[in-house]
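A reminder from the course coordinator: this example appears on the midterm review sheet, so study it carefully.

Given structure:
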């Protein structure tokens, strides 16, 4: 049996910053803010239990700050 690794919201945010931030910036400058908002809305409709758990974890935590690469 393979044990699943549970990611934290901080780990997900760090991955986003390192892995897709350049592509998001490109989409923003070429397609606009509305495109990204629609993309985010569509993504929220695909949430599973793990996403909802991350949404509700540590509601009183400090704001997340991306670390430099």
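Designed residues:
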């Amino acid at each position: 049996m393979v044990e699943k690794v549970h990611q934290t919201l901080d780990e997900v945010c760090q991955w986003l910053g390192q892995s897709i931030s350049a592509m998001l910036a490109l989409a923003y400058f070429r397609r606009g803010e509305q495109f990204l908002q629609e993309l985010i809305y569509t993504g929220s409709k695909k949430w599973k239990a793990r996403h909802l758990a991350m949404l509700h974890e540590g509601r009183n935590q400090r704001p997340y700050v991306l670390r430099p690469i």
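The helical segments are 9-19, 21-31, 33-44, 49-56. The chain is about 60% helix and 0% strand.
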